[in-house]
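Predicting holo structure, zinc ion bound.
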Amino acid sequence: MVAPHLRQTLHDALLASRRLVIFTGAGLSTESGVPDFRTPGSPWMANRPIPFEAFVASAEARREAWRRKFIMDDSFAGAQPSPVHRLLADFVREGRAIGLITQNIDGLHQEAGTPADRLVELHGNGTYATCLDCGLRHELATIRPVFETTGRAPRCEDCDGVVKSATISFGQRMPEAAMRQADQWAREADLFLVIGSSLVVHPAAQLPLVAKANGAALVIVNREATPLDSAADLVVRGEIGAAFAGLAVAQATGMDSMPVRL
Ligand code: APR
Ligand code: ZN
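Done. Tokens:
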């Protein structure tokens, strides 16, 4: 349940913003059936994550990482973008948001139609794989049958390098271009909107503070408290679907003159 006045304040602020930046976490995708990482009982919590260093060093770690990945992929196969994914894509497509920064690896922002040049994935994308040596993209549909018949972790078709899901694991370098773009958008924002993140993983969780330090209003929509709530101008504590219910970009006309007020 989200209090109507709070929902209205959120909607008014979004529609009044002229340089909105959206920052999403796994909480946005739970309504699409993709589990988040830290809600108690999350299947992601069943195993300790395999650090990047271990993945590179050990064939056994790579086999285990691929085994877990395909199990998780099957658990949310066919997940579709939620109405909020689609609303956010509208905000970006209509030019009402200058950029969308996601920590999510599920590809649902792309599927919702978010323009690729206005989307950065800080933690990569789990819908395909790449060679760690030459960067060649590998499709999961090609990799999986070979892995399941041979039990061997995939090697690069071109250079025989180690192939890994295109996600960023703990201990792996962050994607520099994505981080630069996210930082630039955070500095340009007049409103920085965090949706469905516990804001505990850095450096991603610094971005709301970069935006705030550069004059943006900070809004956090999340079921639980986050470490940045005290820095936020507005915290909407509740379900994401309920918080955005009834909001459409089309309403935006006629509010361009209003500065963001929270
Ligand atoms: N409505 C509102 N909030 C929700 C909903 C929902 N339907 N579903 C989940 N949440 C909230 C949870 O309460 C939690 O606070 O979303 C937040 C999700 O937090 P995490 O699971 O920690 O996900 P995230 O913040 O994206 O994690 C960041 O950690 O494991 C790494 O690389 C991984 O990108 C991930 C990063
Ligand atoms: Zn290669």
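The CA atoms of residues 122 and 178 lie 6 Å apart.
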